[in-house]
TrEMBL record:
It is a multi-pass membrane protein. The chain crosses the membrane at residues 28-49, 55-76, 88-110, 130-152, 164-187, 207-226, 253-274, 307-327, 347-369, 381-402, 423-444, 450-470. Gene3D superfamilies: Amino acid/polyamine transporter I (1.20.1740.10). This is Amino acid permease. Its main location: membrane.
Length: 476
């Protein structure tokens, strides 16, 4: 199989055009944070608290963060020593098998393509709360055009736009945690409490009021919340000095996410009854009735709902922006590896894969059908598909690193030659793989997600079948 870097696109004068190393470390960190901080935190965190209880939710997010950290440590070794764009498919192809590499590439593309649909649908629903007479499909179309422009103009423009979109939501989460802690400790008043609430709510109904099982039942949602950290691997091929910047970005992104997510859960659980933290779109003001809005309202911040609606829309569009980037690069890599027609690796003069970006945006089109099939129905099904496909990709990262290290040593190399190496080998990749597998199987236990689970398995089978059909056709 050809390496993703072995084939270059030529311009009209016969000069090579390649993806440009236009991203700095700050872009890389914000790209990872931007991909992760979205629906999983602003909209789904309350649901996890309502199901698992306050301490159960804290435990679930800590476990989710540790799983993400193990996967990212495995990714670090692969990305630093093989910095290519569209990396997961190349890693799996080189270290597991070409058929698996092909499948992983398509699963990652499917995951982010489906995520586009969830982000645009949710953002359009929020806009309709401001402008109830404008149809959801019109807002979806506007958002599609904006995200397309950001990705098509240039990699540098995309990186800058994503940096500032991510900065808005990162700053919001940081402010939320600081103000929340001030309310918990009694420095500012909170509606419903005459004195500092402290952390009594965390154990008011017992340590685990709903038992242990909900912790595991919510792990797919929690893992989806951390989804996006792996974009560091995708962007390694377009990053300045990847040997230095990729490891630092991995450590910075994962630990910041752990602080943001766990800190957010502690603040919400300490200030609100855990039974009332989940979203209820039938008896509330839609998706903007997230626990963030409730906390800000009780503190007395004016226009809290409008502020959080704006922030959540920004967060959703940021995730769509980075998701389109990641999925289009995966499609570009498939084309360069000659597993898709050459047209998909066509680059503009600024180095963006224009056809791959346009085709990937197909995933955003289900949002245009929201009024015919119901926005909630489309949102939930796309969310399940996106979460499961990311678990498969994470499993492949752990497996690829396990085989890479073993083959590296078999070939006579030493550990000292590795520019970055995963610590605690082989424990980290094995634990990462097992925990991701358990998380993926939990989807089958949820009746609402069972159809998506079966659909994803059928898609995986179709990927393998199509790869071997293409491979044998080439051979013949």
């Amino acid at each position: 199989m050809d390496s993703p870097t072995s084939s270059q696109q030529l311009d009209a004068e016969g000069k090579p055009i390649s993806l440009k190393r236009a991203m700095s470390r700050r872009h890389l960190i914000m790209l990872s944070l931007g991909g992760a901080i979205g629906t999983g935190l602003f909209l789904s965190s309350g649901s996890v608290i309502a199901q698992a209880g306050p301490l159960g939710a804290v435990i679930a997010y800590i476990i989710g963060g540790l799983i993400a950290y193990m996967v990212m440590l495995c990714l670090g070794e692969l990305a630093v020593n093989q910095p290519v764009t569209g990396s997961f498919g190349a890693f799996a192809a080189n270290n597991i098998g070409p058929g698996t590499g092909y499948m992983v590439s398509w699963m990652y593309w499917l995951g982010w393509s489906a995520t586009l649909g969830t982000e645009f649908t949710a953002a359009a629903l929020l806009m309709q709360e401001w402008f109830p007479h404008i149809s959801i499909w019109i807002w979806t179309l506007i958002f599609i055009c904006g995200v397309l422009f950001s990705n098509l103009y240039s990699t540098r423009f995309f990186a800058e736009s994503e940096f500032w979109l991510s900065f808005i939501k990162v700053a919001t989460v940081a402010i939320f945690i600081l103000i929340g802690l001030a309310a918990i400790l009694g420095f500012i008043s909170f509606d419903g409490y005459s004195s500092a609430p402290l952390f009594s709510n965390l154990t008011e109904h017992g340590w685990l009021p709903n038992g242990l099982f909900p912790i595991f039942a919510t792990m797919l949602i929690v893992n989806f919340a951390f989804n996006g950290t792996e974009m560091i691997g995708i962007a390694a091929g377009e990053t300045e000095n990847p040997e230095k910047n990729v490891p630092k970005a991995i450590h910075a992104a994962v630990w910041r996410l752990m602080i943001f997510f766990v800190g957010t859960i502690i603040v919400i659980s300490s200030l609100l009854p855990y039974q009332d933290t989940g979203l209820n779109t039938e008896h509330s003001n839609g998706l903007s009735s997230s626990p963030f809005v409730t906390v800000f309202n009780h503190i007395g911040i004016p226009y809290a709902e409008d502020i959080m609606r704006f922030v959540i829309i920004t967060a959703l569009l940021s995730t769509a922006n980075s998701g389109l980037y990641a999925a289009s690069r995966m499609m570009w890599a498939l084309s360069v590896q000659k597993q898709l027609p050459k047209v998909f690796s066509k680059l503009t003069k600024s180095g963006t894969p224009v056809i791959a970006i346009l085709v990937t945006m197909i995933g955003g089109l289900p949002g245009l059908l929201s009024e015919q099939f119901g926005a909630d129905f489309i949102f939930k099904n796309l969310l399940g598909v996106a979460a499961f496909t990311m678990v498969i990709v994470w499993m492949s990262i752990c497996w690829s690193q396990f085989n890479f290290r073993r083959n590296w040593l078999k070939e006579g190399h030493t550990l000292a030659e590795l520019k970055f190496r995963t610590p605690w080998y082989p424990l980290v990749p094995i634990l990462g793989f097992i925990t991701c597998t358990i998380t993926g199987l939990s989807m089958a236990a949820d009746p609402e997600m069972l159809s998506g689970f079966i659909g994803c398995l059928l898609f995986m089978a179709a990927c393998y079948a199509s790869y071997y059909w293409l491979y044998h056709n080439k051979k013949s």
